[in-house]
Amino acid sequence: MSARGLPEVAAPTAEHHREPLGIGEAAPRISWKTLAPPDWTQQAYQIEITRTDTAYSTDWIDSADSVLVPWPERPLTSRERAAVRVRVRGTKGRSSDWSAPIHVETGLLEPADWTARAVSPDWTEPRDAERRPPLLRKEFSLGADIARARLYVTAHGLYEVEINGQRVSDHALAPGWTSYQHRLRYRTHDVTHLLRSGANAIGTWLADGWYRGRLGFHGGYANLYGDRLALLAQLEIVHRDGTVATLGTDSSWHAAHGPIVTSGLLDGETYDARDERPGWSSPGYDDGDWSPVRIVARRPATLVAPTGPPVRCTRELTPLRVTPLDGDRLLIDFGQNLVGRVRITVAGPAGHTVTLRHAEVLQNGELYVRPLRGALSTDRYILRGAPDTETPHAETWEPRFTIHGFRYAEITGWRGEDPYRDITARVYHTDMARTGWFDCSNEQINRLHENVVWSMRGNFVDLPTDCPQRDERLGWTGDIQVFAPTAAFLYDCHGMLASWLRDVAAEQHEDGTVPWYVPEIPGGEQWTPARPGAGWGDVVALTPWALYQASGDAGLLAAQYDSARRWVDLITRLAGPSGLWNTGYQLGDWLDPTAPPEDPGAGSTDRHLIATAYYAWSARHVASIASVLGREQDRRYYDALARQTRHAFLNTYLLANGRMTSDTQTAYAVALQFDLLSEPAARMSAGQRLAELVESGGHTIQTGFIGTPLLAPALSNTGNTDTAYSLLFQQDCPSWLYALKHDATTVWERWDSMLPDGRVNPGEMTSFNHYALGAIAQWLHTTVAGLTMAAPGYRDILFRPHPGGGLTWAAAEHESPYGRIAIKWKQRETHLEVRTTVPTGATARIEWPDGSATPVRTGASISRWFGAVTAPPR
Ligand code: BGC
Prior knowledge:
This protein is α+β, with helices and mostly antiparallel strands. The chain is built from 16 helices and 46 strands. Strand 19 and strand 20 (about 245-250) form a beta hairpin. Beta-D-glucopyranose (BGC) binds near residues 466, 472, 476, 479 and 765.
């Protein structure tokens, strides 16, 4: 709010971009947040768009909307830049000043904008054996008066670009992993400051990455997308007089091997600093002995602009403990299981090798790497040395094109001064804005929440993965399906997941089958060809909805509608007249703790009960999506389908005595949370039975991936919040807090990834960093703290705190599309005190433990009390 008491509008945003340079939307939707006096309501807005040639402002548009409002003018063309400002007027007529501007700039919107051709070194190399990654370079000269310059770039393989000896950006692992045959992401960089008149040079590192590196389990596969690395780069320089020079990759570029000897995402990187080529990306370097390049095919129509942020180093951690081991080794404990890589500063003789191995856990004081299966996760640095002087020179190195999941590193041959200073873990993930926080009076619960956040970071490296460390790291559909609501609270992951959902739709099979993981790669008989699996394939209906709930973006629903519908139609065909999805291969309640380690799908809940429940739930979601999109006929059809499926479910899986045919925690949780039990009495009895099962199980968890996210909500929604708290506070295995006894700093794949006796679970799949079971965090946000969304995008907010479990206070915050929402409750002796913050543009109310409600004003932080209050507490 301004000093004059007027509303103030923060710089607007375009679509879901954090950095709107090189966007792919010609008519980006605009959003803004307003700081205004309490209860101020927007009555109208104005958008001003300034382009190179024109300035345009809308009239006042009568609307209270401020999230993703339509672009009001003619669409932008390729490479077009515009400054956008917004101002708003309240119902009482006073208007704000113009906001600060946001500068949006489009990328190359038309395939014909691409004049560059993808180029690859023109040499022959072995198909599978270790292949040395290349460098590519080109010198060029420019006239004076450069006004601006943009680099549009992507690659087959991973790339890092330098201009005149300097990196053009801090993006890592670009272009990320998309379904390359359908969609390859390019990025736009502002490189104006790197160019000069006269001689210039551009150089690029390339490496195998996802394109042709070894990926996948059981030994994996190389060359999944092709066996030649290639670069596609288009540098466009605009001079002050308006003339444009374009320099694209073409046959005049040159290639040579660089100092990276081998590089693989799973295996790690080996770098021989003696083979560096000083000055290679600067002008004047002699590339007379470099090889020519050849043009390779890449259809420009498959090039897409990003919808989410790039991967970056977001944090650095210094060692918590350094322990010398025999054999010239150091064991480093970074104190946090993380995803990224280690940077070292060493000094020693030329040719000396420093080897870095990584692991999530130790056994007997040594790295324990069996859980990594076929991922070697080993980096090697071969020192440059300083041949001409006696004193060694410090050399700093970090691998470029690999990534590991680890808390511990073992360094062999360390030659450095102070390991606490010279060894650093660098955390990498998609650089999403953090939007969600939780805190309470119990430190263990806070640590659990922190572990969930770390598991999200580690598995949001360009695509949502199951795990970041072993030879898997795939976009497993079921994992993100159960975790998406939590993810969307913690971080603004809309852009990243919207991109991934495009890939899912692109790879969905003709008959509607959704691959188990996307991008799909061969996975042996069990996974390829993919078969329709409940909970996994349902990602296409449930995850767009979860993102829509968090962002209010109905455009995403429109984009994914067909994919969602095709999935439900497939299940309808599979179910046939019975309305039951009771055939075919199912993973069931994956990793139910009663399933044997070698058969994680053999849980105690009938797999087809779960499959039919998901069928009904997805049908209902397709109906809801159709309704938002105004497809009335579809809505009616899918609504009816959902109802029929529910009847079939109840007739088959609910017994006359109110028990389910699988008398398990998961069966009741699914039936309750998927709204299959509509009668209040049936709900109450199912909630009661669920609570009994939890109590008779000694408050341990008996659910896997499917049941776990639903368990605590099913209890609290049926009046069994105390039982849910008892589950939450359980320390014995299986429970959420059990892992903390073993010093967990991320969420594990299995309840007992580490067995009570301290040995690592012998199962094939034993990851210490899987987010699925961390979906409990959303219950902490919505139920313990009580911050829930009552309308998409948090336009309406329901604060519904559930004090209990001995907590004396709990708090949650969420940076919503309208602005910051916060709640903090304190249990006082005589009453409950609740302090809330509601952003302008939203509406909110508090629902008290007795069911009564109090509306809350927007634009202010206020306190309310529930219970016997004699005097307002201070
Ligand atoms: C992955 C998962 C996945 C599961 C499905 C595992 O190997 O790590 O988390 O959902 O397979 O079967």
